[in-house]
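pasting for the record
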Amino acid sequence: MERSGTDRRSTVGGWVGSLPAPLALLNRFSITRYLLASVVSLAFDVALFMVLVAFLFDPGWASAAGYSAGIVVHWLISSSFVFPGKARDGAALQLQRIGFLGTAVLGLGITVSIVSWLVEAGALPVIAKAAAVIVSFFCVYLTRKYGVFR
């Protein structure tokens, strides 16, 4: 697919945008692209979390490790697909990465706190993780959309 100079979509974004409706809606709104990126990142996150819990790691620490793996995956997707044309160059790129990392630390804090608190209260680790994912998703999306990638 050839892109014009004013088309800010990534190659993947262009491909998704050329899909038949309603699948093309995935590319229309940043929240749907962010949701897709989050699902992919969450797959990495939860897979590592479940493996570590199966090996009897503390659920709080396992959630931290899983979330950290998801952060790396999410940056790669967010900077090229979710917020196309918003990536910076030079020093501004470094500041953007720091902002992204800051929002990741926010999400990590939310995730670890909720998982640890709910497991301590008697919830199953996977239920606690699900609750943390929902809260973290919206908090981090809003700070990235209106802060990091504005």
